[in-house]
# Entry
Amino acid sequence: VQLQASGGGLVQAGGSLRLSCAASGRTFSSRYFMGWFRQAPGKEREFVAGISWSGDKLYYTDSVKGRFTISRDNAKNTVYLQMNSLKPEDTAVYYCAATRAAIATFTTAYDYWGQGTLVTVSS
# Structure
């Protein structure tokens, strides 16, 4: 499975961005749980949001609840992360990842990773 993340950029605080993660190869027919992670300079990579294969189970880290929304379109082999009310502390490289686990919030549980897309939020 190959993952390609896109949609990052520079935005002012309070603004919005939508990230996309397109999968190719042995794709969603394998029923992957998909996650978004982020890594800020000097910090460890952290879980941001995750979504089950069917899309009925959603998970978020506390700091983004109510601001970020994860979704997926299995017909398009794509996962999205809608980010609203962005804050400077959301600045990071965002990665999408796929796992065969039913649910996973740890980086070590993921089998495939995208290359990352940079999100910069100015104050």
User: Anything to note?
Assistant: The radius of gyration is 13 Å. The mean pLDDT is 94.
